[in-house]
């Protein structure tokens, strides 16, 4: 039996528009609830949320029966961390702050088994292979991995063409907050100067045939789609919770 089909990658290759939500609460119950809401994908955040490998694993288990595809953002592009995240069953990984083609090539190697990469071969003991029920997991896993890299700095933008040329990089994802700060507009992601750069990254990524993604919680979503984005992070669980709580408090208490 081969590795499980990566439904997110399959939909990406079909050209589908994919709307998702960030999971920042680092909680299995919250993840399970969000898995019933109908998002195309849900991203378990390991960079800015209090997640560790165990809490990521718990949330992947909670989302196993969900129609929403489960993604994981690793805290940093370290091959040791990537190996663990793949072994707990993640098939789509987002790596923050990618700034060169060399870095991108090393990330591709990190998600692939030898001889094409450096991922450690211990699949029989892992959730990824369903503990060896997928007998041909090692031989088939590479083609089901989806690797997305974040472009969120001047260096990343400058190296974009070279990064997009790396075989094995499936798409880019813009982090507007980090990008705007590095461009000298901290806290101003909607400034014209930042938006111009965002449009350039989206258009170049789309033109390369790879997936273009961005976080968009405001009114700019349609423009991003027009510029080529097919992956939109339209919500964050923390923001949704705060908004709902604020509405309730304002209605009944204040």
Keywords:
single chain, 254 residues, alpha/beta, TIM Barrel, 8 strands, globular
Strand content is: 15-25%
Helix-and-strand structural type: alpha/beta
Alpha carbon gap, first and last residue:
59 Å
CATH topology: TIM Barrel
Total beta-strand segments? 8
Spatial order of the strands forming the largest sheet: 1-2-3-4-5-6-7-8
CATH class: Alpha Beta
Sheet bearing the most strands, described? Answer: 8 strands, parallel, barrel
Global Rg? 18 Å
Polypeptide structure, described:
The protein has about 250 residues and is α/β, with parallel strands linked by helices. The chain is about 40% helix and about 15% strand. It has helices at about 5-15, 30-35, 55-60, 80-85, 100-110, 135-140, 155-160, 160-165, 175-180, 190-205, 220-225, 235-250, and strands at about 20-25, 40-45, 70-75, 90-95, 145-150, 170-175, 210-215, 230-235. The chain has an eight-stranded parallel beta barrel with strand order 1-2-3-4-5-6-7-8, surrounded by seven helices. Helix 11 (about 220-225) links the parallel strand 7 (about 210-215) and strand 8. Helix 2 packs parallel to helix 3 (about 55-60).
Outline the fold blueprint.
Layout: H1 7-13, E1 18-23, H2 28-34, E2 41-45, H3 53-62, E3 69-73, H4 79-87, E4 92-95, H5 101-110, H6 137-140, E5 146-151, H7 154-158, H8 160-164, E6 171-174, H9 176-182, H10 192-207, E7 211-215, H11 221-226, E8 231-236, H12 237-252
Parallel strand pairs: 1-2, 1-8, 2-3, 3-4, 4-5, 5-6, 6-7, 7-8
Helix pairs in contact: 2-3
Short summary:
The chain has 254 residues and is an alpha/beta fold. It has twelve helices and eight strands.
